[in-house]
Amino acid sequence: MLDFTLRLALSPVLLTQAIGVRARALQLPEAAGPREGTIGSGPELSLLILGDSSAAGVGVDHQDQALAGQLAAQLSQDFTVKWQLVAKTGATTASTLKALKDQAHAPVDVVVTALGVNDVTHAVPFGRWQSQQQVLRKRIDQLFAPRLLYMSGVPPLGLFPVLPQPLRWTLGRQAARFDQALAKSLHGETHRHHIPFDLPLDPAQMAIDGFHPGPQIYAQWAKEMASRIITDWPDMSHHR
After folding, report:
1. Which 8-state DSSP code applies to residue 85?
2. With 70 as the cut, is the pLDDT of residue 6 above it?
3. Predicted confidence (pLDDT) at residue 99 exceeds the cutoff of 50
4. How many CB atoms lie within 10 A of CB 234?
């Protein structure tokens, strides 16, 4: 209730700051390069990455440096990885659901999502976001029937250097609330997992807009995600 009251009181300031930040942050292009491919050797593993600008590789020049390319490369040491990226700058949970509306049924072994930042910055109500996330999980299961689903945590917007106060504090509180709810909703699930975004946000390792990851952060993110997938993959205990 306190957060809501403060946001209401500060809303003109927050709105002005948010518009300025969004205008600057959205100037960077999505990473160039293919959005699907096959790499590696060993058992076959199909991978789908679904999400927003961070999934699309904003902040680096090429997909090889972004989450999709680096994750596929990491996994290719153990698998023949057939990967695909479906991501768009500005994507929210709602817009992603809309994009999946006409998607054909296409089974995939592993799905990785990166969503939540735009839900926070667009002030999607907490309850609505929780409902949309629940629908998204069901839709992913219906369409892709993944053996494993990894939902990346909502990044700590309260630590983003580009955000001015009080916008940084406000968005940080809401991002933490969203992320805690996501973790709680996935707790105890057998094939769905929350991967907290606990990477160090050194401004020197972020993109020039101060909002998106740089290549080192993408590399760390991919390494952590690959480690989880390899650990959790049912057949790896026999493979290694």
Report:
1. E
2. no
3. yes
4. 8
Q: Which 3 state secondary structure label does DSSP give 222?
A: helix
Residue-number span of the structural domain to which 168 is assigned: 2-233
**What distance in Å separates the CA atoms of residue 127 and residue 147, rounded to the nearest whole number?**
28
Burial 65-77 (b: 16+ CB within 10 A, else e): bbbbbbbbbbbbe
User: Quick check: is 240 in a domain?
Assistant: no
CATH of the domain at 67: 3.40.50.1110
Q: Does some domain include residue 59?
A: yes
DSSP 152-217: EPPP-GGG-TTPPTTHHHHHHHHHHHHHHHHHHHHTT-SSEEEE-------GGGB-TTSSSB-HHH
- Which pLDDT does position 86 carry in this prediction? 96
Chain centre distance of CA 202? 19
**Does 147 reside within a domain?**
yes
0.85 surpassed by pTM: yes
Task: Provide the domain count of the chain.
Answer: 1
Please check whether residue 238 lies inside any domain of the structure.
Answer: no
What is the SS3 assignment for 139?
A: helix
